[in-house]
Prior knowledge:
This protein is mainly β. It has 1 helix and 6 strands, in the order H-E-E-E-E-E-E. The chain has one helix at 13-22, and strands at 29-31, 38-39, 53-55, 60-63, 77-79, 84-85. The relative contact order is 0.19.
Amino acid sequence: MGILRRSHRSPDLCNVFLWMWKTESLKGTRFLQFNYLGGAIPAEFGGISQLEYLDVSSNSIGGSIPSSLGKLSKLSKFNVSTNFLIGPIPSDGVLNHFPKDS
Length: 102
């Protein structure tokens, strides 16, 4: 597995996702908080069926939360706080179980 290092530029979350996909780092747990990530949460995250924990808090992520994340039946921790997201947490699937202040 590769190492994600901070840089002076804000990496785009979609680019980080692609890097993780190529290095097969998208299994189980993803803690990506405090990494100055920007961009939007990729809808493709909804296809990571083994994802159990997703924490992208305290970044610069914008846009809305994709409803495709509701397909993540194993997801038990979801933290997107302290970002620039707009709109509610979608009420689809597993996302319905998380508090609105996640």
